[in-house]
């Protein structure tokens, strides 16, 4: 796909490290020109360079938790626990970027990282990310912009998104995390991508994205009338599979006491319920932790429907006490990696009574909600 002239201008800006001058930044991001001018003037003073060498990369509205803008002792005055409406602004000298916090008028500004500037995303990687987003999500390239980019060290060769893929090289992989946003949406969509250092591997992070739109396999909201019943007391997790050639429905539960129970119903309505196995309290705890670390709740009330031409597929619902998601068996390979990892781990837990070692949750990882 060839990029339009508009998006090429954005990429040329990224190559130098900017998305436009102060006037353009104000128009695109809503950042008042006076606030941008104060930020660039302050950074120029601290770096001992001309303000003309600095450009605004991006600006996002923020509500800070106190009058110190969320950074204790950032100002000479005592912090008051009053919400402050303002901005987070990134500024570049063409090689690195710095981040400022401001109030809405720019009278109060705080530099986050004078001693630790962040490298800029190379143009070639920015080019590839925007092309990939346009292709994956059926977007016009000139409506896309990169709103954030930061260097990362990924846990493996699959950039930490390989799920149960045993072919992922077990080595630390430097790369980038890049956020792309649409300029036009009333409710902005945000796509998060991961890359390796060269940008030759680009992977969409579904769980980290905020997607409302068309995908290769578009997710959509489950109709409330199609949602299965909520779990009963004592039920921790449930899988419902139905349809396919046999038209049989199978429901499998994990109970709080570690029992895994299954109920089958044939097209004539005959049912059979049987216990499958008993798992240990440790495995129950690991399963709950896996759901947390794989951010299962992010898929709540979303479904991943099959392609229109698909036939004889089974519909699958996965539910815990807080969330339910829906997909089909024939499109498992298209699922977000976190959801695929949960599905494969569940299959192992049901069949063997233990989670596979490749997806055991890491107790060292923080709660995703705190990230």
Task: Write up what this structure looks like.
The chain has helices spanning 5-16, 22-29, 33-47, 123-137, 281-293, 337-352; strands spanning 55-64, 84-92, 96-103, 109-111, 118-119, 144-154, 173-182, 190-196, 202-204, 220-221, 235-243, 249-255, 259-265, 271-278, 302-304, 314-319, 324-328. The chain has three domains: 18-118, no CATH class; 123-204, no CATH class; 220-370, 2-Layer Sandwich (Mago nashi protein). With 371 residues, the chain is α+β, with helices and mostly antiparallel strands. It has an eight-stranded mixed beta sheet, with helices on one face. Strands 1, 2, 3, 4 and 5 form a five-stranded antiparallel beta sheet that branches. A four-stranded antiparallel beta sheet has the order 6-7-8-9, with helices on one face. Helix 1 (5-16) runs antiparallel to helix 4. 21% of the residues lie in helices and 30% in strands. Mean pLDDT is 79; it is low at 1-28, 212-216 and 362-371.
Number of domains: 3
Question: What count of helical segments does DSSP give?
Answer: 6
- CATH-defined fold name of the largest domain: Mago nashi protein
Mean pLDDT: 79
Distance between the termini: 34 Å
Class of the largest domain, according to the CATH hierarchy?
A: Alpha Beta
CATH architecture of the largest domain: 2-Layer Sandwich
- List the secondary-structure elements in sequence, H or E: HHHEEEEEHEEEEEEEEEHEEEH
Tell me the strand percentage band. Answer: 25-35%
Strand count, sense and barrel status of the largest sheet are: 8 strands, mixed
Q: Provide the spatial order of strands within the biggest beta sheet.
A: 10-15-17-16-11-12-13-14
Count the strands? 17
